[in-house]
Design a protein that fits this description.
The chain has 473 residues and is α/β, with parallel strands linked by helices. The protein is built from 17 helices and 21 strands. The longest helix is centred in the middle third of the chain and has 16 residues. The relative contact order is 0.08.
Length: 473
C-alpha cells in the first residue's frame, strides 16, 4: 500500500472494529480518506461505533452488505483474525483491491525503526523483555501491537530516535506488503493456526514475510535450533544473528555449555554473546534468570540478541534478565494451596507450548488441559504425560482426545469435566477436581494445549477465571 495520505478523497473499507480497527479508521480519516468501517457483530455489540460516527466515519454493523466492496474502493484494511475466505475479503481480492492489516498502515506512518518479533510461542514474553532491556540500556522503546497499545496509535507518536518493539502474529504478517522491520526475530515455528492458514506452507510463508523487505543493513535473528527457521536462511537479506541453546556460535547468542537431551537440569550455564569478531561477552548465569522454564531461556537468548542488535550494551542486560517477573497467563505463579503451587499458563494454545511448560517443572504435575478442537491428535503430549504428569483434568471440546493420550501414557488419575453452559463454572469445577488430586509438593498447572474459543472469549478470560477459582479454593 501507499502512505495513508495518498488515499485522500478515496474510499477505504476497514473490516472489524476492535482496538486496531478503530485506530486504523481514525488514521485514514485524518488523512482525508472516505472511510467505512464494517463489523458483522450487531450494533449493540459494537460500542466503538458511536465514537467513530461522531467523527463522521461511516459504520455498518450486523453483517457484510453485498455492496460494501466495489470497484471504487481503493484499499481494504482487515482485522487480522478475519479469515481470507470471508466474503468481503474475497470480493476485494477478486476486484484487485489491496487487502492489508494494521501493521502495514502503521509501518508507513512510523518515524521510528521497528523491531518485529514473531513465533509460534514466546512472542509476548520476548517482546516485553526486549522493551525492558532497551529501557534499562538507556534506549527509547515503545512496545506496541498485540501486546497492548494499537500499533497505529503508537506509530503516530513515535520519533526517529525511538525503537518501536512490536509483537506480530502470522495473521498480521500475512497482510503486509512493504513492511520492513530493521530488526526481525523469528523465535520458533510449530503447528498452530492451521484452521486459519489451511496448512503449514501458508503459515510459514506468513511468518517469513517478517524478513521479506529487509536490506543488508538490517538484522535477522533466528532460532538456530529450529529446523524451519534454519530453512529460511537462504532467503535472508539482512545480517544474520542467530541464537541457540544447543550450539556454540561464532556470531550470535547461545547457552554455554549447550543443552543436551537427557542431561540433568542442574548443569551451570551462562548466556554468551559472540560478536563475530572474536569477542565473547558473558551476559548472565542462567540460574539467575527470574522466570522458570527452559523455553524461557530460549526467549532470553532471543531478547538479548535483539537488544544487542538495537545497540544495547551487553553489560547492561543482566539486571532486566534477573528482575523480569514474566507476563500474565504465561507460566504465571498464582498461589500455594495445601502445599501445592498453582500456575496459570492459559496462553498455551497449542500442544508444543504445553510440552514446554511441563518441561519447566521437576515436581509432579496435575495438569488442567483442553479446549478448542483444531484436529490435532495431541500425541505430542504423550512422552511428557509419562515423565512429568501425575494426573490430568480435561475439559473443553477436545477433552476426550487428551484423556485418551493420558490413558495411553498409563495415567490412572484422569478426570473428565463435562462442559456446562456456564464456562466459568466448568473451569472452576476443573480447578476443584485438580485440587483433590494434588498433594503437598505438586504443581497444579493450567496449560490447555488448545485455544480458548470453544468456551471463552479469549485465553485471558480463561486465565483470569482459573486464578479466581484457585483463590477461592
Amino acid at each position: 500500500m501507499n502512505h495513508p495520505e495518498s488515499y485522500r478523497g478515496q474510499q477505504v473499507v476497514v473490516l472489524g472494529l476492535a482496538k486496531s480497527g478503530v485506530q486504523v479508521a481514525k488514521v485514514l480519516d485524518r488523512a482525508g480518506a472516505k472511510v467505512t468501517v464494517n463489523d458483522k457483530k450487531e450494533r449493540e455489540q459494537c460500542p466503538e461505533a458511536s465514537e467513530l460516527e461522531a467523527l463522521g466515519i461511516s459504520v455498518v454493523c450486523g453483517g457484510h452488505p453485498d455492496d460494501l466492496i466495489h470497484s471504487d474502493v481503493k484499499l481494504v484494511v482487515k482485522n487480522p483474525g478475519i479469515p481470507y475466505h470471508a466474503p468481503p475479503v474475497q470480493q476485494a481480492l477478486a476486484l484487485g483491491i489491496e487487502v492489508v492489516t494494521e501493521v502495514e498502515v502503521a509501518y508507513h506512518l512510523c518515524a521510528a525503526p521497528m523491531i518485529g518479533i514473531t513465533g509460534s510461542n514466546g512472542k509476548t514474553t520476548t517482546t516485553t523483555w526486549v522493551g525492558e532491556m532497551l529501557e534499562h540500556a538507556g534506549l527509547k522503546p515503545i512496545v506496541a501491537g498485540n501486546i497492548g497499545t494499537p500499533l497505529c496509535e503508537a506509530a503516530e507518536l513515535a520519533s526517529p530516535d525511538d525503537w518501536m518493539v512490536v509483537e506480530l502474529s502470522s495473521f498480521q504478517l500475512k497482510g503486509t506488503v512493504d513492511f520492513r522491520p530493521r530488526i526481525a526475530s523469528l523465535l520458533n515455528v510449530t503447528e498452530t493456526h492451521l484452521d486459519y492458514h489451511g496448512g503449514m506452507e501458508d503459515y510459514v510463508a506468513s511468518k517469513a514475510k517478517l524478513f521479506a523487505n529487509q536490506q543488508p543493513d538490517d538484522v535477522a535473528i533466528l532460532n538456530w535450533d529450529d529446523a524451519v527457521c534454519r530453512e529460511l536462511v537462504p532467503y535472508i537479506k539482512g545480517r544474520l544473528l542467530p541464537f541457540s541453546m544447543t550450539e556454540k556460535l561464532d556470531a550470535g547468542v547461545y547457552a554455554d555449555p549447550p543443552y543436551v537431551d537427557g542431561e540433568e537440569d542442574d548443569v551451570q550455564r551462562q548466556i554468551i554473546y559472540a560478536d563475530g569478531r572474536g569477542g565473547r561477552y558473558v551476559i548472565i548465569d542462567i540460574e539467575n534468570i527470574a522466570i522458570p522454564g527452559q523455553f524461557n531461556v530460549g526467549n532470553a537468548l532471543a531478547a538479548v540478541a535483539i537488544a544487542v542488535a538495537a545497540g544495547a550494551d551487553p553489560a547492561l542486560l543482566a539486571a532486566p534478565l534477573a528482575d523480569f517477573k514474566g507476563v500474565e497467563h504465561r507460566l504465571e505463579y498464582v498461589l500455594q494451596h495445601n502445599g501445592s503451587a498453582y500456575y496459570n499458563n492459559s496462553k498455551a494454545t497449542n500442544s508444543k507450548a504445553t510440552v514446554m511448560a511441563l518441561n519447566s517443572f521437576k515436581e509432579p504435575v496435575v495438569l488442567i488441559a483442553g479446549g478448542l478442537d483444531r484436529g490435532s491428535d495431541m500425541m505430542e503430549l504423550l512422552p511428557l504425560f509419562q515423565e512429568r504428569v501425575k494426573a490430568v483434568v480435561v475439559l473443553g471440546e477436545n477433552r476426550a482426545k487428551i484423556a485418551k493420550v493420558a490413558e495411553l501414557a498409563g495415567l490412572k488419575q484422569i478426570k473428565v469435566v463435562d462442559n456446562e453452559e456456564d464456562a466459568a463454572r466448568t473451569l472452576t469445577v476443573a480447578v476443584q477436581e485438580a485440587s483433590k488430586l494434588a498433594t503437598a509438593g505438586d504443581i497444579v498447572l493450567l496449560s490447555p494445549a488448545c485455544a480458548s474459543w470453544d468456551m471463552f472469549a479469549s485465553y485471558e478470560e480463561r486465565g483470569r477465571i482459573f486464578k479466581e477459582a484457585a483463590h477461592n479454593l
